[in-house]
Each structure stands twice: as structure tokens, then as C-alpha cells.
């Protein structure tokens, strides 16, 4: 049984916009194709000197409680930063966040579960607090996908955007917010979406892209729809709930068509879905907190709502959580 809940949310996206019209000038594509195949209308792109830790710091500055109140970071005892695009290989983004805010006596660790990173980080924060080892954990998911996007590849460059989201997870034994979790991995699908690193081969296959994102979009699409809809079914069974018990579904915002397919397969009305893909593109692990923020701002997401979060991405790996907002 959980003893933790999310007590505050903050987000940030860079000012610079990259429109579909701008992409038409870079590659052979069209606004109509992008909107029809992905639902994406625009995305925010970091400035040349703006990196993931900068976006994360702004998201933490924007943290607000349920009544819009600012929150203190004094007693934070662990910082977990989720990112696939850290400023440096090391030191980590979580250490940069600690330095900026001067949070004392806090551990700091980065986690990389690609686009599923925010749900994994929340799951771990819940576990750490429920175990009694920690009391107040700052979870931050930030990405500058534009820095690793190949703007000559029309099948990837239309998708990605930059942004960050932060959540405070606190000890709350009387009002626990985490109800159930599910996760799974298919490492054999690693080749379907990757960015090369120290090694330039995977399972005997040479890697392309020279440090930029490479993907077989169709394979990722099919895997995500199949896996996430099966995961939702298991998660609901496990919690002895049905889709009617869910107030909001917040999947990773990769592609609007993908969200529509998952909803259709799972019997979740699209109207119960919060997403950030239309206005922000695929911001990897930042996409779920950005979608939650959209729901808060629109007055849709309210305290006590039951929310189904579902992260999925390269790995291939996925993590779904049932929470109370
Ligand atoms: N503009 C115009 N045409 C395009 C574009 C474009 N931007 N991109 C691809 N096409 C063309 C292709 O070349 C292909 O043409 P062909 O039939 O002549 O070969 C045609 O459109 C269809 O291509 P598909 O790849 O089948 O198109 P699809 O409808 O699947 O859409 C997309 C492609 C948008 C990439 C989709 O597959 C997708 O979103 N997949 C999921 C990607 C994803 O979520 N990745 C997340 C990983 S991020 C991470 O984990 C770090």
C-alpha cells in the first residue's frame, strides 16, 4: 500500500516555436501530412545555449500545489531526474538541479527510461517513500530532443519538441496517491528506435545516425498500440477497476493517431484523454507532466481524480501507473 502522493506540479517549455511551415522549408513534407499522420501543429525548441537542466530548473521554479500555491524545496531528500538528453554524460542533470536550488542533504540521481521515464521515476519515488527511506522527492523530467534530432530526416524531425515537467512526491500515509503499477520491457526491439553512443553496433547490426535519433516509426507505432492497450487491461484487472472508473487517461504524447488507436483498443473515450502532442510534439519523458499541466490549466484535472498515466518508448520499455491526483 502506498504512503506517498504527488503534491505539486510545474512545467516549462522554451519560447522558440518550430511550426510545420518551418519544417516544410527543411525537408520534403507538408503541414497537411504532419497534422494528418501525427496531429502535431507546433513544438517548442530550446535556444542554442539552453540545455535540459535549464528547462528542468524552470519547471521546478514553476512548481505549484493544488491551490496554485508555491512550494518549498527545503526538505527534499532525493532528486530524481528523468532524461535521455542530459547536458553532459556527467555530472548528471539531477546534480545540476541540486546545485541551482542549493538543496541540502539530498541525494541526486538521473534515470533513463526514454519516453517512459516520468512514470518510472514516479513509481520509484512512491516506492522509496512508502518504504520509509525518504519523505520528499523531487521528480523532474526534462528533454531537449531538438539537440539529437536529425533535421534532414523527415520521418523523425517532424515529431520532436523540448520541454520539462516537475512533480513533488511527499509522504502522505492518510491520503496515498499511488494505486497500482505495471511495467514491461522488450529489449529485442531496441533497434527500432535508438541513438548511438559509445558503441556503434547493436546485436551485430551497425547503427546509423551518428548520435541522432534513428527509428522505424511504423514498428514503434505497432508495438506501442499493442503493448499499451494490453498493459492497460492488466493494470485495470490488477486494481479490479474498469475504464469507467478512470477520470483521465494520460499516455505518453508521441503521436495523436497512436493515442487514438490506444483509446479505441482500450475502450477509453478520447474526451477523457489529456495530451501535449498537438502543441508540443513528442517531448519524450516530459510529455506526460506537460499533458497533466494542460489538464490543470483547463480546469479539467481536479484533486481526487483517478488518472491512468502510461509511459512507453525506446528500449522498448513501458510503465503504467494508476494514481489519484
Ligand atoms: N512528410 C511526408 N511524408 C513522409 C514524412 C513526412 N514528414 N515522413 C515519412 N513520410 C512518408 C514515408 O517516406 C512513406 O513514404 P513511402 O510510402 O513512399 O515509402 C510514407 O510517408 C508512409 O511512411 P510511414 O512510416 O508508414 O508513415 P506513418 O503513417 O507510420 O507515420 C510516423 C510515420 C509519424 C513516424 C509514425 O510511424 C510514428 O509516429 N511512429 C512512432 C514514432 C515514435 O513514437 N517514436 C518514439 C520514440 S522516441 C524515444 O523513445 C526516444
From TrEMBL:
InterPro entries listed in its UniProt record: ACP_syn_III_C, ACP_syn_III_N, FabH, Thiolase-like
GO terms of molecular function: 3-oxoacyl-[acyl-carrier-protein] synthase activity; beta-ketoacyl-acyl-carrier-protein synthase III activity
Domain of life: Bacteria
Entry annotated with the keyword Acyltransferase: yes
Pfam families the UniProt entry points to: ACP_syn_III (PF08545), ACP_syn_III_C (PF08541)
Region (ACP-binding) residue spans: 253-257
Name of the protein in question: Beta-ketoacyl-[acyl-carrier-protein] synthase III
Organism, scientific name: Paenibacillus faecis
Record lineage: Bacteria, Bacillati, Bacillota, Bacilli, Bacillales
